[in-house]
Design goal:
Layout lengths: L14 E3 L1 H4 L5 H21 L2 E5 L5 H15 L3 H4 L13 E3 L13 H7 L7 E6 L19 H26 L6 H4 L7 E7 L2 E2 H5 L6 E4 L5 E6 L5 E4 L7 E3 L6 E6 L1 H6 L9 E3 L26 E2 L2 E8 L6 E2 L17 E2 H9 L4
Parallel strand pairs: 1-2
Antiparallel strand pairs: 2-11, 3-4, 4-5, 5-14, 6-13, 7-12, 8-11, 8-14, 9-10, 9-12, 15-16
Helix pairs in contact: 2-6, 3-6
């Protein structure tokens, strides 16, 4: 059994109760103690698998469910209505709607010919991106209000919910790294974050398992932290930290948010925290004995081809302010642990990665 998997082969992502950061019902000293304990558990998860599930994270279940409801309403719109908020060409202005096959996620591939080759197996998903209303470099691109009344207002308020949670997580990480509790939050004070709605349509399972098409290819996230709200369909897999290119499924956990470390935080922490490669594929089959193809090579007993259910997810990507110089944090390097990366601003790194997507 692999160190970071359970007996059934799924990834063992820890679940941490975040109550100490989301309520003020504790006595002051008791709250600090509870926060330190939760932070230590989060740090251990980030050092081992790079992911953690947070329960009692402070965003009400009703708010999350409403966000999924708005997501479905948007993606159910006719294509021409969604294209009233089009994602601009390229990856420098990451806002608005991207249709099926528009984006191809890759991992450290920047050569144009290599990217073209990867695009032959497109990501079968559609997305809608929005961000901070004060982000002048990447203004939001919304569908006209009459197309989906209330959509814009809700997304802007849910963005704020997620930004508050990120701030609390940054405080948690700072505590464990013996930094000023506000150290990391100050470097993300502009909150130039990205709220993404994702829809993976229903399609034949065989085309996913064959590699003819994909949902999201193996990659790590660009920024500091990612929050992920997901439905119960499954399909997310993480790479085993001890065995590259071996992926294990991550089982969705109700009423939690999945949090993972991004590349900038890994660089910032001088590799103390792990940015783990992950992907979205066909979910584990519910066929007997795990036979995804069935006895008829992908058909069920009625002779119909097996179909993978539609999947919805809501990631929220946090990153440092653009001019923040990402270099090893105090206490993460020394004679026995030299700095592992050259200094680079957050903007330079993210733009380099974004340019390879579109």
């Amino acid at each position: 059994m692999l160190p970071n998997t359970t007996h059934d082969g799924t990834a063992a992502v820890p679940i941490v109760d975040f109550t100490a950061f989301t309520t003020d019902t504790y006595h002051k000293d008791a709250q600090l103690s509870a926060q330190c304990a939760a932070s230590a558990s989060i740090l251990a998860a980030f050092q081992s698998v790079g992911f953690v599930y947070l329960s009692n994270h402070g965003i009400a279940r009703a708010r999350v469910e409403e966000c999924f409801s708005w997501s479905k309403k948007f993606f159910d719109l006719p294509y021409e209505k969604k294209m009233l908020a089009p994602h601009p060409p390229g990856g420098s202005h990451h806002r608005g709607y991207s249709g099926l096959g528009k984006e191809k996620v890759s991992q450290n591939v920047f050569d144009k010919d290599a990217i073209s080759l990867l695009r032959k197996a497109p990501d079968v998903k559609e997305s809608f991106e929005s961000g901070n209303v004060n982000d002048e470099a990447q203004p939001n691109i919304w569908p006209p209000d009459e197309v989906l009344p209330g959509f814009r207002e809700f997304m802007q308020s849910f963005f704020n919910d997620c930004a508050i949670l990120v701030s609390k997580l940054l405080t948690s990480i700072a505590l464990t790294l013996n930094l000023d509790p506000a150290y990391l939050s100050r470097a993300q004070s502009q909150q130039l974050y990205q709220l993404r709605l994702l829809h993976y349509p229903r399609l034949p399972t065989s085309v996913l398992r064959s590699g003819e098409k994909g949902r999201i290819g193996a990659h790590s996230d660009f920024g500091t932290l990612t929050l992920l709200f997901q439905d119960d369909v499954g399909g997310l897999e993480v790479e085993d930290p001890n065995e590259p290119e071996k992926f294990t499924a991550v089982t969705p956990v109700k009423d939690t948010v999945l949090v993972n470390v991004g590349d900038l935080l890994m660089r910032w922490s001088n590799d103390l925290l792990r940015s783990t490669v992950h992907r979205v594929v066909a979910p584990p089959s519910d066929r007997p004995n795990g036979d995804a193809r069935g006895e008829n090579g992908g058909e069920d007993e009625s002779g119909e081809e097996e179909m993978t259910k539609a999947r919805y997810s809501i990631p929220f990507f946090a990153t440092a302010d653009p001019d923040t110089v990402i270099e090893a944090l105090p206490g993460t390097w020394g004679e026995e642990r030299p700095k592992r990366y050259e200094s680079m601003t957050a903007w330079e790194y993210v733009q380099m990665r974004m340019a390879a997507l579109y």
